[in-house]
Design a protein that fits this description.
Distance between the termini: 32 Å
Oligomer: single chain
CATH superfamily of the largest domain: Gcn5-related N-acetyltransferase (GNAT)
CATH class of the largest domain: Alpha Beta
Radius of gyration: 19 Å
Number of helices: 8
Structural class: alpha+beta
Order of helices and strands: EHHEEEHEHEEHHEEEHEHEE
Number of strands: 13
CATH architecture of the largest domain: 3-Layer(aba) Sandwich
Shape: globular
Largest sheet: 8 strands, mixed
Bound molecules: coenzyme A
Amino acid sequence: MDIELRAATAADAERCGQICHAAFADIGGRHGFPSDMPELEWAIADFMRWIAHPGYHVIVATDEAGAIVGCMAIDERSTISGLGPIAVEPTLQSRSVGLKLLNAALNRSRRREVPGVRLVQAAFNGCTMGLCARAGFVVREPLVTLQGPALALAIPGYRVRIATESDLAAADALCRRIHGHERSGELRDAIATGSARIVEHDGRITGYASELGFGGHALGESNEALKALIGAAGEFTGQGFNLPTRNSELFRWCLEHGLRIVQPLTLMSLGLYNEPQGMFLPSITY
Ligand SMILES: CC(C)(COP(=O)(O)OP(=O)(O)OC[C@H]1O[C@@H](n2cnc3c(N)ncnc32)[C@H](O)[C@@H]1OP(=O)(O)O)[C@@H](O)C(=O)NCCC(=O)NCCS
């Protein structure tokens, strides 16, 4: 199959959404896991938003007739680029379309001189794990997606409140201390939509969440800060939030509070990566 790659336009959003919706239902169904993109309308809306956003880049793969057969989104809002979702029309998989999309994304990141690229893949998906490992990605962290009813609990001494633009500098500084880079672009968007939360302890910011759920990341100086953010969340958006299982204390605490494992995931990186100097919950990109 002759494949061409190009940047997506607004007119491509519907087809990209359809491919992702079908491809994630197919891979999840084959392994007995729920789809990462269960609602077609939401998948299309995501692509409309990403294609229109100057901080995202969406690549489409087209066949000889110009029909879109695969797509991939890159989140370029912050220092590190986050890859995904990537999907190929189910009937046309295993013909190197995914590899071409991945290589195009990595070539673009090289051209932009991005210090690091990351992604989160479903650990049951041997195809993405093998594809990404061969492309140079390093396995960094085993994760699980956790979901369940809101915990509605407070941690004494930890106050959770809505984040505002005036929190950005302090939140970025905390992210740099823990991860060695900021995630300003994502946090600014989350503040604008109202999903971002700050946790304060002893009169200072000790953690934040851009969103407690699949599309958001959170970090904290301690597990108490993350517990406060998780405990205060009204819901866990999308499939749920992603937790590094090496953080045994927080993992056990979540399970003891009734949360259930949805699926295992793997955080992978290429380029800059620092062992986190604090606690964190990665989004579905990193
Ligand atoms: C993941 C996806 C985009 C890959 O696209 P694709 O066009 O099917 O994949 P390609 O043909 O380019 O790549 C196949 C390569 O994956 C690797 N691979 C596949 N299965 C593998 C396995 N079980 N073990 C190790 N490597 C494997 C191999 O390197 C293989 O190449 P090879 O057959 O030449 O050795 C596509 O399968 C898809 O849409 N899946 C559903 C959605 C999804 O899971 N997205 C990723 C979210 S984490």
